[in-house]
Amino acid sequence: MSEQAVTDEAICQIIKGVISKSAAKGGVTPEMNLQTDLGVDSLGLMSIAFVLEEQVGVDAFSHVDQFINAEYVSDIIKIVREN
Amino acid sequence: MTRIIDFHCHIASEMCFPGSFQSGVVDNMTVALQSKGMPVTKDKVAKMHAGTLRDPLCDHLVKEMDDAGIDEAVLLVPDFTYALRDSTHSIEELIEHHKLVVDRHPGRFKVFVGVDPRWGEAGVSLFEKAIVDYGFDGMKLYPPCGYRLSDKLLYPYYEICSQYSLPVLSHIGATSPVLDFELALPIYVDKPARDFPGVDFVLAHGSVHYPDECAMLCNNRPNVYIDVSGYEAVEVAGLNALFRRGINHKILFGTDWPVFRLQGHQSDFVNRLLEEEAFPETMSEAERDLFFFKNAKRLLEKKTSPSPSAAG
User: Fold this and answer.
1) Peptide bond into B197 cis (omega under 30)
2) Is pTM, for the whole model, over 0.90?
3) Which of A5, A41, B159, B167 sits at a 20 to 30 Å CA gap from B272?
């Protein structure tokens, strides 16, 4: 997947693939809260960062602070867009 | 409006956690991520983890506390410097740094200072200086470093705590795999708690590590307490069960900042308790106040040593 081609929906799908099945049941949308809506924990957030790095080419280490402070799915999308 | 004291925090800085300690934590994370098929190396996980330790002056923590409605927090200073010789700072330097942070944020922090009992008489003097000259507020112990709470080497420290009516907070249970887990059993508090009835002993992580033993000790030793830090890692059902054991006058709110920084903000951790039914219906508002604020306040206010400023 090239960086140019990645859509919001594709990023949501990547996040959906990382979180638990029960949390992913209702789908993933940009306005969802990572912790309260999707149950993303420490390892979950790291997983999102590393999968985005592998699949989309995000430089996770240049955005560590942004990942740590990400609250919503839209914050993750923003990191990908700024990459 | 609920007032809150966070009884379990640390300064988020690599100076407070030796590289070997962090490396052990990262080993566990790496194993978990790799077993899930994540494309990671230990080095990558270590860099992400290090990102959580960039608030050496606690400016960000204070903002998080404000957002979460946390009035005050207890900063704990575990002394890893005897057991882990790759520490970048001496325990004296770490104590000095905590004084700087307290002075930078007046009224926001208490400090429980740890000194490994194997430092001998110099360690006792250093601890007493931190209490008397700096006005620090209690003792932090970390048995996985190589001692038990019942170790006689700790008795001179307990005597100082008894003299100034200061609480002792101890890590309980597992930690970084570079340290010894078997020493951190809650039952080792029994002897010192009996020998020093004027000292309150807090078993950290008592809602997640050995909760039955911790609750038993709280029920039967008047001066033994639990802090719930670590609840962020598990279902809140465990907390709900704990609050139904008749020891709500013994349970203290704590977050273990910055351990769960990748999992959310301090406000998330407070809200989660309210939203996920951590509190049973049988628990009164008065008991919630005990948990969030009044139990901690009661322990902290027993202190008799004057702070340097109060002493003039």
Assistant:
1) no
2) yes
3) B167
